[in-house]
Amino acid sequence: MAPVTAAPDPLADQMPGQIWPLTATRDGAGRLCLAGHALSDLAATHGTPLYLYDQTTLDGMAAAYQQALAAAYPAASEAAYAAKAWLSTAMARWAAARGLGLDVVSAGELAIALHGGFPAARIHFHGNNKTPAELTAALAAGVGRIVVDHAAELATVDALARAQGIRQPIWLRINPDVAVDTHGHTATGHAGSKFGLALADGTAEAAALHALRLEGIELCGLHCHIGSQFRATEPLTLAVQRLLDLAARLRDRAGWRLAELSPGGGWAVPYLEEQAAGLPAIGAYVTTVAQEVIAGCRQRDLPLPKLALEPGRSLAARAGVALYRVGAVKRSGAVTYLFIDGGLADNPRPALYGARYSALLANRLSAESPQRVHVAGPYCETGDVLIQDIELPPVQPGDLLAVPASGAYQLSMASNYNAALRPAVVWLTAGEAHLVQRRETLAELLAREGASGLSFGRQAA
Questions:
Q1: How many Cβ atoms sit within 10 Å of the Cβ of residue 58?
Q2: What is the pLDDT of residue 180?
Q3: What number is the average pLDDT over the span 294-312?
Q4: Where are the alpha helices (DSSP H) in 127-229?
């Protein structure tokens, strides 16, 4: 058998790989650094698990969308960050400063956005089951667009808006019945999806015509979202054509003008270096969508609407790194486990979607021959394996593992499973490291408990 050689470290030459933040380097001691900060120093200060966000990478991703839209689309356009990828007051402030829009899907996300000073007029309120209380809060805040999912919600928004004496701008969420090559849990535009008004049976067209007759509603645009983590643009361009067909019919039947069009987000990001191969760049994706809208409007004699794209994962994922400390190394049958102090509670994606990740030793470089291991967390689930079958050099208790592409759909999906405490979050710029979310405490975990007034009789000996 040929000898096993150490796997190449994508950062050994001081250059970031395709899945690491743009500022990722190694220092002279072999320590992984972001924005000039050694991760081992950040772990010593803030503990682990620890999430790190690199502002340079966030800025670069936002600029990629905005510059591509400006170059490819001659009419008004907007890139709106999908808050469900991860939202904090710091993220809301950053998105506001960069001129992005913001998609929210709950009263909680709306509250965080407003607390962070995000302009309500640039917020789109999505969701398939908004409560009257959530809609009332959105109207009171002056949310720019409510994205209406079904006919019952249309009636509720109209009634609440009339009660407040306003006319609320809305988009209708359309189900274009377009399949996309992604995990079944993240496909949202097929006929059986829970989201949107169906095109195929006329439901969407009927709802739009009804909306045009309502006093409390201003129908501004059409929206769809076909799924997440798709790599091909053909399904998206088909969805755009179907939305433009609907807009043309509404013009012909009711004289309506499509002012705004949102074909959603969902563009894929690589989680492993090999996944980057063949993935079109953001600029190419944006250009394809823009050209499809331009050509489609020309064919149907429609004026160009404002084009709104709604990236979440592709803005935030690469900017984030999760940092864990190794507690023990254990051999179990034919498998070697590295036990870390996080996993399922702060990142359920491997258990939910079979998501795959990479990792590097963060506190040192090693030229030792790699070993094939599973990286597993401390939680009481067999599925609490963050990374299966990864090759790493021999790892010792106390070592730090850094997991890239951790900026989206990890913290936003985190839980208190096994009464885990949610991790701290540090925002990194050159020369500064800001603690933007502190680690949850046991006192905070217990603060919700309200059983102190209950009496269960005599306590057993």
A1: 24
A2: 65
A3: 97
A4: 132-141, 151-163, 203-211
What pLDDT, on the 0 to 100 scale, is given for residue 278?
Answer: 80
Mean pLDDT, residues 142-159 taken together: 97
Helical H segments across 19-145, by residue range: 39-46, 55-72, 89-97, 107-115, 132-141
Q: What integer pLDDT is reported at residue 192 of this predicted model? A: 62
Q: Alpha-carbon distance 7 to 3, whole Å?
A: 12
What's the CA gap between 83 and 91, in Å, rounded? 9
* Degrees to nearest 5, angle at CA 405 with 431 and 229: 140
> Does the pLDDT value for residue 4 go beyond 90?
no
What percent of the chain stands above pLDDT 70?
Answer: 92
Amino acid 459: pLDDT: 67
Report, as an integer, the average pLDDT of 278-306: 94
CA angle, corner 344, sides to 341 and 348, nearest 5? 140
- How far is Cα 334 from Cα 122, in angstroms, rounded to an integer? 54
Quote the distance between the C-alpha of residue 137 and its chain's center.
Answer: 23
Check 33, 224, 297, 380 and give the catalytic one.
Answer: 380
Q: Which domains does the chain have, with CATH numbers?
A: 25-54+318-446 (2.40.37.10), 73-311 (3.20.20.10)
Q: Is 428 helix (H, G, I), strand (E, B) or coil?
A: strand
As a whole number of angstroms, the distance between CA 365 and CA 121 comes to 49
Residue 33 annotated to the active site: no
Going from the C-alpha of 156 to that of each of 98, 110, 136, 224, 282, the distances in angstroms are 33, 19, 10, 21, 37
Query: Which has more pLDDT, 19 or 1?
Result: 19
